[in-house]
C-alpha cells in the first residue's frame, strides 16, 4: 500500500537527511504520544522520548511498502514498541537489583553478606545453576535470553534458577 509518506520514507531509507528530518517533523506528535501513553515518571520522560525517536528512526529504515500497511501505522507500532521495550528492560534491571538477595536471604542475613561468602556459595552450585544465577542476577538477562544463549528450553532455564535459589536459601538458613 502506497500512502503519501512512502516516497519520502524511501528517500530517507536512501540516506537523505532532508527526507528524514521532514518525517521527524511531521511525526513529532506521534513520537511524543508514544511516550505519553505510558504515563511515565518525570525523571524517565527524557529517556523515553529518546527511545521513541530511536524507534521512529528504526521504523523509517524497516518500513516495507510492499507489505500492505501504511507508514503511519508502522511508525506508531515501532515507536510504542521501543518505549515499551525500554520500560521493560529498566523495570527488569531495577527489580533484579532490589531482589537479588531478597529471594535468597532474610534481611538480617543479607546485611552481613560479603562478596567472598557469595562466591563460596556459588561454588557449591552446579555449573548450570551458577551460570543461571550469574546471568540472571549479575548480567540482567531474562529467562528467555538465558535459554536462548544456552540453547535450551526456557523451562530448563527456570529449573536451573529454581534449584540454585533453593540451594542458596538452604545454605543461608544453615549458617
TrEMBL record:
Q: Which residues form the RNA polymerase sigma factor 70 region 4 type domain?
A: 116-168
Q: Name one GO molecular function term.
A: sigma factor activity
What does the record list as coiled-coil region(s)? Answer: none
Which residues are in the RNA polymerase sigma-70 region domain?
23-93
Gene3D superfamilies per the UniProt record, alphabetical: 1.10.1740.10, Winged helix-like DNA-binding domain superfamily/Winged helix DNA-binding domain
A GO biological-process term: DNA-templated transcription initiation
Q: Which UniProt keywords apply?
A: DNA-binding, Sigma factor, Transcription, Transcription regulation
State the name under which the record lists this protein: RNA polymerase sigma factor SigS
Amino acid at each position: 500500500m502506497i500512502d503519501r509518506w512512502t516516497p519520502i520514507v524511501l528517500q530517507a531509507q536512501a540516506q537523505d537527511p532532508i527526507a528524514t528530518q521532514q518525517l521527524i517533523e511531521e511525526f513529532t506528535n506521534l513520537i511524543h504520544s508514544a511516550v505519553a501513553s505510558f504515563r511515565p515518571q518525570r525523571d524517565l520522560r527524557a529517556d523515553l522520548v529518546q527511545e521513541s525517536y530511536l524507534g521512529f528512526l528504526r521504523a523509517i529504515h524497516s518500513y516495507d511498502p510492499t507489505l500492505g500497511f501504511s507508514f503511519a501505522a508502522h511508525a506508531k507500532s515501532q515507536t510504542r514498541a521501543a518505549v515499551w521495550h525500554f520500560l521493560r528492560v529498566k523495570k527488569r534491571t531495577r527489580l533484579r537489583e532490589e531482589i537479588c538477595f531478597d529471594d535468597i536471604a532474610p534481611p538480617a542475613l543479607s546485611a552481613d553478606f560479603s562478596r567472598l561468602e557469595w562466591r563460596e556459595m556459588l561454588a557449591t552450585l552446579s555449573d548450570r545453576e551458577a551460570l543461571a544465577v550469574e546471568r540472571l542476577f549479575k548480567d540482567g538477562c531474562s529467562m528467555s535470553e538465558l535459554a536462548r544463549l544456552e540453547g535450551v528450553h526456557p523451562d530448563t532455564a527456570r529449573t536451573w534458577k529454581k534449584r540454585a535459589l533453593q540451594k542458596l536459601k538452604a545454605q543461608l538458613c544453615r549458617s
